[in-house]
Amino acid sequence: MNRRAFLQKPAAGVLAAASPTEAAARYEAASGGDDEKISRFANQELPRTARSTATLAPYTGPWGYSQAAHLLRRSLFGPTRQEILTAAGQSLTQVLNGLLAAPVAPAPPVNVSATDTSVPIGQTWVTQPFDQNVEGVRRSSLRAWWLGQLQQQSVSLAEKMTLFWHNHFVVELGDINDARYGYEYCRLLRQYALGNIRQLAKEVTVTPAMLRYLNGNQSTGGAPNENYGRELLELFTIGKGPLIGAGNYTTYTEDDVKAAARVLTGWRDNATTLQGYFTASRHDTGTKQFSAAFGSRVISNGADQEYKTLVDMIFAQADTARFLCRKLYRWFVYYVIDATTEQNIIEPLAQLLISNNYEVAPVLRALLGSEHFFDAVNMGCLIKSPLDFTLTVGRQLQVAFPTSSSLPTQYSVWDYINGITNLQQQVLGDPPNVAGWPAYWQTPQYYELWINAVTLPRRNQLTDALISSGGITRSGFTLRIDAVALVQALPASTASDANLLIGELSRLLFPIPLTANQLSYLNDVLLPGLPDFEWTVEWQDYVANPTNTAKKAAVQTKLQALLRTMMGLAEYHLS
Amino acid sequence: MNRRHFLQTTAAATVVPALLSGLPIGAYGFSPELYELTGGATQTDHVLVLIQLNGGNDGLNMVLPLDQYSALMNARADIAIPEPQALRLTSLTGLHPAMTGMKNLYDNAQLGVVQSVGYPNPNFSHFRATDIWTSGSDSNVTITSGWAGRYLNGEYPGYPTGYPNAQNPDPLAISIGSVVSNCVQGPSVNMGMAIASTSSFYQLLNGVVDAAPNTPAGHELTFIRQVVQQTQVYTTAIQAAAGRARNLSPLYPPAGQNSLSDQLKIVAQLVAGGLQTRVYVCNLGGFDTHVTQVPLTGSTTTGTHATLLGKVSEAIAAFQDDLRRLSVQDRVVGMTFSEFGRRIKANSGKGTDHGAAAPLFVFGTSVNPRIHGTNPVLPQNAGVNDNVPLQFDFRAIYASLLKDWFQVPQSTLNALLPSVGGPFPYVPVIRPGVINGTTPAHLSVTGFRVFPNPVREGRATLAFEAQGGHVQVLLFDALGREVARVLDRNLPAGACELPLDMSGLAPGAYHCFIQEEGRSSSQLVALE
Asked: String of b and e for B440-474 (b: at least 16 CB within 10 Å)?
């Protein structure tokens, strides 16, 4: 630096004495802290907005686009416009029948990596011997395959319920370190997704992934491991009630945890057969005494059948049904369960579950077909999970995905999507802990845990990238929203009318109506400062000259701006 | 920049220190030494304000070719402005009578008019023509980035990764209105921050969000909106800048009457508040005047188009007045543009259809206050398809602005504005004296000072060299409210010393502002 510059600097410095610090402070304040986990704006207490007083009585009100959209938003990962229209054209009963019909089990995940030489690319690895060197690529394959099931789902509750059970009977793929166990666990959840909860609880108890995850495989008569017994009671079945005495949680006691652990001794996982297996010598054959919470029930030695007796005993308690129904309610409806909801919805739902021998389908049918579910108060109040958000963008806006003609590309793109949801703080196969994603249990924030100063920009970055002309390229495949094709698929009279077009896209993308101000704002995004008829002129000009790139670019820019703005609205995060 | 210019700009900057307190080192005036030291973007405090007139503005009724009136009346007698009503800039060229504010700016050497701006092979689609104007592409080439966005991307490579940061805490560009303007679209991301509407700007300042229904969905919506606002990374920077300055011009119409004026008010406040943002984009819609751009009955000087031009004129005049009062007028240059002009011949509905070249305005104390080019020559009997031929490619104006206002080298300009017709000829829209530093745009009142400072016991003295003529001295509080009119009368030339009585005022910071013909200064005064 020469002398002149040196002299200039202090002169400037006098004016700006405080600026570097101030600028830094401004920056820090603006960034909101990069490590924010819970938004400073999230609930400090449960909201007190009025809840619906409508009951489980079958819904008989109007049935049209908005009702069908509500049901499918909650049941799928982003219903397409065509799926909504089809459902709106059927009866509610027909739609529920379809949603509750179990689809055919998917073929297992396949090898897409040159690293895994146990099988050729395109063939499944799920029965091959364990190899730590390829565990990573197999786990990625499993996760990608799972994501693919969601992305390619039919109009069925199977995938949303499979994810529900994953969030309920949690294992973490990273912990169990055997993707073959992981696949078997996924297969089991999917098999019972719409089936019998008690049977699922029994089979999950001795599935090798769970035996390893919660240390059941280390539990012997001489040294019982309480981990699974505790979570079975606290998280998987009856749930923890109020503490009413030393070690007494109303619904069960600490001694019940110990007794349950003894029942479950003797099980281990077999890495060759990929099954749980029982070793009589490791089992505690003594009598297990349960507390008054279970009617002072005694379970005597039942060897490898004993765990079923335990599960039956727990499921004989009405509180188990109540606990499960509350969880379903928070998954499908809203997180606030007040006294009225408890009485009008949870209790009758629990009784229905019991009277149906713990088959979940009749309960889902009752809940999702109820007056309560279709009450306007319950529309749009669920915040999309990262999986729901990300898959919805792709499905509703018709983003093309690679086909099975190139499995490595297909899996690579699914894997990429897993990375995207992971950045938004949710990844298939690895809930943060055994309690599942806190958005479904952590009071008072619940769903609001999904949105914070870190995750919201990541959601916006995704939608901004997908609507850009370049899209996102992964393994040579480009993911992008083709705004022009999307609009061209609409009825011509809708596509060519600015306000009808905005209305049609709005009812697809948003679960609640926009205000007149918002609609007029969107109109201005599509047509800055121009009268409505100019959209018709420009659109029809393009439609008449579909190969004219300039005319296509003209409407594409505007539609991209419109969709980018719509996906940037707060409403877009609601379901 | 030579040393004298540096000292001049520094002196200009010192007059209102409180308003500039947020400026980091070197943010005003280009300093090659500081540029090397920081290794960063070109240091400049210059601001460019782009005003987009959406819909295609009828240039022939805005800038009136007085020597073409017989042809003009042949083509559009139904809608033309009667010649006597023209606001004459020169003997040959006039303005629409609704634009008295622009006429005054021209008379005060703050307005340049560029005639017949367009591009070869004009496109008549609003969308496509807008894309051409905002991207700076040739007519038959699609470029998805914007011309100003490419400029900013070159200055701030890698944006938005790592932004904002301590060196660049402020938005690089701000567009006010429903969309982030494509002008500031970079090659991969938009370089601009959008302020959706003037009301959302004030919401942002106050940290409030739109009201939502009192339902569970409304509860979650409010929560998400709060996070949306929080994660607008520039919220704090905007709030801080807005907190440092208040609009001072009484010429702005009340909020809600002139949306361009409402937008420019925000720009003036942010510029004066020290935001380092280089490019602002504002817009006014409604120029697509196919029918009744003038009333069905009555004078052609009223009606839809007159109202629009009146808004443009009123807003820009108030903005310039505000910038002057805020002592930042020399840092700001503005330009209007529209995606196309309209046909020479009026249609049968007292309107005009999509056309081609049209005049644009450049405004500010630093512009060359002249008419560039000549009046368009109109055919004696224009047909329905006749258009105003171009004299200036719009990219020549962009290139000249970038070159003179942001010191962009020619080689960079050629890369920023690729064209088979390039490189584009230079158009001196910025005053040569401003560029080479020989004539500062802004003149201070000689020897103006208030002493002692801080002021004790409410008594002070103000001194200056009067040039002879009317002098006004005003005292503003920190919020920009006038608290005293110290002087407002004619004074003879010569040294002047006057008592300044602040005894009735609360202790704190005040700005003492002085202006006489063509000059102004101000000083921060601390009252103890």
From this structure: bbbbbbeebebeeeebeeeebebebebbeeebebb
